[in-house]
Amino acid sequence: METLSENCVSVYKCLCDLGRLRILNLLRQGPLCGCHLQVALEEPQPKVSKQLAYMKRHGLLVSTRRTNWTIFRLAEGLNPLLEENLKCLQDLAFQDPVFQQDLARLAGINTDPADCCD
Amino acid sequence: METLSENCVSVYKCLCDLGRLRILNLLRQGPLCGCHLQVALEEPQPKVSKQLAYMKRHGLLVSTRRTNWTIFRLAEGLNPLLEENLKCLQDLAFQDPVFQQDLARLAGINTDPADCCD
DNA sequence: GTTGAATATTCTAATGCAAGAATATTTCGA
DNA sequence: TCGAAATATTCTTGCATTAGAATATTCAAC
Fold first, then answer.
1. Does any domain span residue A78?
2. Residues A14-45: tens digit of each pLDDT
3. Residue B84: inside a domain, yes or no?
4. Containing domain of residue B104, as a range?
């Protein structure tokens, strides 16, 4: 069993990588499938997949399989520490172009009916 | 120059280790010299020294030399993200015995006039 | 069945810490 | 000058993680 402080360290381990922060920033908006994430982030598929697996392993994300796609979402009942940092991420998203561009690309994908999950 | 998101990643890198969290929890109370930290944490000196150096390198701490002792304190003008997490650390300190014991040992040291910096 | 899309995994290097032991440096006091 | 305390650094070893390339798996559609 994991103590509270061990769990906090787990959370921080997930947050200390820019790639994972970018994923969390997108998932704050709601669940997303892997391919949408991959396109919004403009990162290679194995890289995104491994970052998602890392955060699942640490309990931040859960995934559900819907036919051919895997839908990722933030886990329920998150550590309050993580909740707080996701709020901070919102402020960060307003100030850093990297996060803004991710959100912009994601918005573009969602409105395109030719996309995979739509 | 470091971008805002890079700076946040730096902060999270410092937070993702229990030893460093314990140090930050003690420094929340105010500046401390290395030997007080070492005794309160009950950790070997090189380990504490390296954790302090790590956080200095990432801009979270500053140190001043006073004769034979080095006084460590939280840096001025911290990233708001770090401020927020230091507040979270306060809540954590109420719930996790590790942090409580550190504070208890520190309180014991400070009231003892035989100690090094007093 | 075969193809193709979506996702996961494996492999190989390379990197960044981490701990522990030992040693070096600085400074004060005897 | 010498010894002792406080601090920093070095060295070694090991572990966790990362990227990138390649491959494997799963499933729908044809």
1. yes
2. 999 999 999 999 999 999 999 999 999 999 99
3. yes
4. 18-109
